Every structure is written in structure tokens, then in C-alpha cells.
């Protein structure tokens, strides 16, 4: 899904969110502020909005090396380890193999690659099927990890994405 095809979904989501601020109801949302792991500078925010059949993911990350970076939802909402390993492995409640979210079977926590520009900034807007914020496949309380290297979408169970450069915990707004 390219950015142009996602624009109507993002526009609708923003409109619904604006209505919710007026007390007219709105989407179910969550957010994960990303903080750098020890020795790294990556930081940002990942916003999650429940949509029909999945979750809209809107990520904005800075402080990355230019290029591709593995990006996953992890099984534990714990960023206490200096290297982010306390977040555990990829969120995979259905026991599927690691894979590319655009090409069939995958961990539910496998997300598309983050691609940082020459200044180390990356943005991603995508919808992932099978995730929820309020039901089965609930991601609230889980971790989000940005990796140093690209995800090869083949190596099991991690994608060979290298060190964890940022970590965040998914939480509902208060």
C-alpha cells in the first residue's frame, strides 16, 4: 500500500479523531512513545487506530541511520533492559513463521520496514490485519522495537534485523 492510497484512510481517521474530541464518539486508539536504547539516538512515536479488520499504524521516528530498519511489535511491554531485549520476541500468538506483512503468513507483530531518509527520519502509515486494540489480537501493553538493520523477512524467528535501537510500550490514552 503506497502513501497515496492510504491518504483517504488517514483523512477519515483524522476526521473521526476530531469528532471524538467534540464528544461525538471516535476510534479506539493507542500510542507507543519510542525511546532510544543505550548508545542510540532513535526516538519517536507510533500511533495505533483500530479500523475495520485491523489497526492503522502511523509511525514517525528520528535519529536513525539512513536506510531500512526492521520494525516489530514484541510480546512484552518492557523496555527496562539497556539493549531492549526485555521486550522479548515478536508478538506471535498464532505461531506463524516470521514473514513480510505484504506477502502472506507472518507473526502478527511483523510490520513493514521503516525507511529513514538521509537525515535519519522515517515515517510509515500502514494498516495491519489481525491486530486489535480492544479484542482478540490486542496489542495494548506490548512493546514496539525499531532495529538497526533491515528485516530480511526470511530468517526465523527474527528477520536478522540486528540490534534494537528504540523501544516503546503500547498504551491507551488516559
TrEMBL record:
<feature type="region of interest" description="Disordered">
    <location>
        <begin position="77"/>
        <end position="108"/>
    </location>
</feature>
<comment type="similarity">
    <text>Belongs to the Cu-Zn superoxide dismutase family.</text>
</comment>
<dbReference type="InterPro" id="IPR036423">
    <property type="entry name" value="SOD-like_Cu/Zn_dom_sf"/>
</dbReference>
<protein>
    <recommendedName>
        <fullName>Superoxide dismutase [Cu-Zn]</fullName>
        <ecNumber>1.15.1.1</ecNumber>
    </recommendedName>
</protein>
<dbReference type="InterPro" id="IPR001424">
    <property type="entry name" value="SOD_Cu_Zn_dom"/>
</dbReference>
<dbReference type="InterPro" id="IPR024134">
    <property type="entry name" value="SOD_Cu/Zn_/chaperone"/>
</dbReference>
<keyword id="KW-0479">Metal-binding</keyword>
<feature type="domain" description="Superoxide dismutase copper/zinc binding">
    <location>
        <begin position="43"/>
        <end position="170"/>
    </location>
</feature>
<keyword id="KW-0186">Copper</keyword>
<keyword id="KW-0560">Oxidoreductase</keyword>
<feature type="signal peptide">
    <location>
        <begin position="1"/>
        <end position="25"/>
    </location>
</feature>
<keyword id="KW-0732">Signal</keyword>
<keyword id="KW-0862">Zinc</keyword>
<dbReference type="InterPro" id="IPR018152">
    <property type="entry name" value="SOD_Cu/Zn_BS"/>
</dbReference>
<dbReference type="Pfam" id="PF00080">
    <property type="entry name" value="Sod_Cu"/>
</dbReference>
<comment type="function">
    <text>Destroys radicals which are normally produced within the cells and which are toxic to biological systems.</text>
</comment>
<feature type="compositionally biased region" description="Basic and acidic residues">
    <location>
        <begin position="97"/>
        <end position="108"/>
    </location>
</feature>
